[in-house]
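Customer ticket, subject: "Can you confirm the structure for Gfo/Idh/MocA family oxidoreductase?"

Message body: Hello, I'm evaluating your service for our small team and ran a test protein. I'd like someone to confirm that this is what the system normally returns, since I don't have a reference to compare against.
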Amino acid sequence: MTARSPLRVGIVGVAYAEGTHLPAYAALAAEGLVELVAVATAHRDTAEAAAQEHGIPRAHVGFQALCADPDVDLVDVATRPSRHRPMVEAALAAGKRVLCEAPLAPTVADGEAMLGAAGDRGFVDMQSRFWPGVTELRRLVADGYVGRVDNVAATALYPTFTTERAIASSGWCADAAHGASSLRVHGLHTADLLRFVFGDLTDVRGSAARREPLWDGRVPADSVDSAAWTARTPDGAVCSVHSSWIARFGAGFRLVVHGSEGMLLAEAAGHTGHFPVRLSGARVGDDAPRELVAASGSPVEPFTRLVRALATGDAADVPTFADGLAALRIAGAVETAR
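Agent reply: Thanks for trying us out. I re-ran your input and got the following:
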């Protein structure tokens, strides 16, 4: 059997990528699955500094140069949502596959255009799917662990932008024009988990609000910071989701599934993109829920699993641009109701 060549990756943007993307590529390079061949930023000094620090062979100034690089197979767009569309379209026009940070785009119209251009070459970094606790939740629901699914309730309540550290590193999220909000980030990842486990959601209704006009008393904020919505699964179960990134004492993520024969509970101490998911469950006749999957693993692991799937050709569960667009449509429906 012929050995598979490493997936050659070029990454656009390094600020967000420092925490998750770059460590994941380093780990996969050590396995011979990935080769990080190029990086691009808007300025030569930052591009060259990132290349030198992370041992990346080529530094490009501007995303267009990286997209045109013949040695790049996959372009990883790790920038703000408002910048995604031109970067993604340039990569697709150059014949590349694309992995785009979530949310896919700032608007549904942008997402539709990007999906139309991508075909089967577009993937979205909604890596929460790749925690073992989530994949086991999906398997158990499909296998009938809870019987008929009747009620699904999720909360994603985080203190993110009540902390000086988050505001200093990601204060741009305060400006709605950049395309991020609690609904479009934590709410979007939660929506993708629900779609991954149960299928397409319908009858989406909700409310979104901007409750904190000044982050840390100094950063004006007009992005949605709190949202709640309901939906129905394909089998008719009722779902509810409540998300916020200004919940000062927010307890993290919780997703509970109640059915005719049992229940399942997925929990994480923080945003599911980076915090491991614990799964517990109980069936009729049990005295109490028991742990089924422990909450273990580093913050880099789900993204590493996602890219490994792309590199090995086992990408059936990797979120696509169609999944990213579906999540955007849910956010759009909630925002329109507001």
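A couple of notes from the result: The chain has a mean pLDDT of 96. The longest helix spans residues 321-337. Feel free to reply with more questions.
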